[in-house]
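Example S7 (structure tokens).
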């Protein structure tokens, strides 16, 4: 099964509107009026979405993502942003369950599941993040953790909605550390996640769902990781902040 790779830039809490504009000035000429064999997604902070949609809204090769959303429609949820609000900024994807949301803000699998379901109500495509800590991996809990995150996080998602979801396998010990999972470690985890999708949603869904790798992806390691059978692109933090390095990862990885 041919799956279109997807490369997503997770800027985290970096780049306000003016830095987003600087990025756009350099990145736009490289992607405008071009077709790529992969999907390219940029996830700026909420406050930069208006600027990003002004820059990239008409660029067919680039889609925008938010880095989070609320599990509620509207109301007394100070500081939150609903999926419906994001639609006004030409946002098509939303990163959900990133390990920083899980560990710093205490998001549980159940909360992430509610967010996935709410995002799908307005046709936003979740980039659903999962991954184990070093302690869990070394304690032999890799499969148990991934099974729990997938089973609970994707509970009640329909098969159709699942196909519009992207999974990002991101071992927590590789995020922002400069330590990348080896291609073998990554492929093994991706194959396991795909088998979990097969159990929960069937063989067709397992063959079609895109599973990105995330964790210190750089221009130098993208090709080896992306060559793995079950890896369909990357979620990139640090190395996506520079237009040239984000583009090199996309080019080297496809
Ligand atoms: C991430 O934030 O999802 C990530 C993978 O970060 P980095 O590429 O910096 O490890």
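Recovered sequence:
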């Amino acid at each position: 099964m041919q799956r279109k790779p997807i490369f997503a830039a997770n800027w985290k809490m970096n780049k306000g509107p003016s830095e987003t504009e600087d990025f756009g000035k350099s990145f736009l000429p490289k992607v405008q009026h071009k077709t790529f064999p992969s999907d390219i997604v940029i996830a700026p902070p909420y406050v930069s979405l208006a600027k990003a949609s002004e820059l990239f809204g008409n660029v067919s090769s680039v889609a925008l993502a938010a880095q989070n959303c609320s599990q509620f429609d509207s109301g007394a949820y100070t500081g939150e942003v609903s999926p419906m609000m994001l639609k006004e900024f030409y946002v098509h994807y939303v990163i959900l369950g990133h390990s920083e949301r899980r560990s710093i803000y205490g998001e549980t699998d159940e909360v992430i599941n509610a967010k996935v379901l709410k995002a799908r109500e307005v046709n936003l495509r979740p980039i659903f993040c999962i991954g184990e800590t070093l302690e869990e991996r070394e304690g032999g809990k890799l499969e148990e953790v991934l099974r729990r995150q997938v089973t609970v996080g994707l509970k009640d998602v329909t098969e159709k909605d699942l196909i519009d979801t992207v999974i990002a396998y991101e071992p927590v010990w590789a995020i922002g550390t400069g330590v990348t999972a080896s291609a073998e470690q990554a492929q093994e985890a991706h194959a396991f996640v795909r088998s979990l999708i097969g159990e929960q949603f069937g063989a067709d869904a397992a063959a079609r769902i895109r599973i990105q790798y995330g964790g210190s992806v750089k221009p130098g390691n993208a090709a080896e990781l992306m060559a793995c059978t079950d890896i369909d692109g990357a979620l990139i933090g640090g190395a996506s902040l520079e237009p040239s390095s984000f583009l090199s990862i996309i080019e080297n990885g496809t």
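Notes on this example. Strands lie at 6-10, 39-43, 62-66, 91-96, 125-130, 166-169, 210-214, 233-236.
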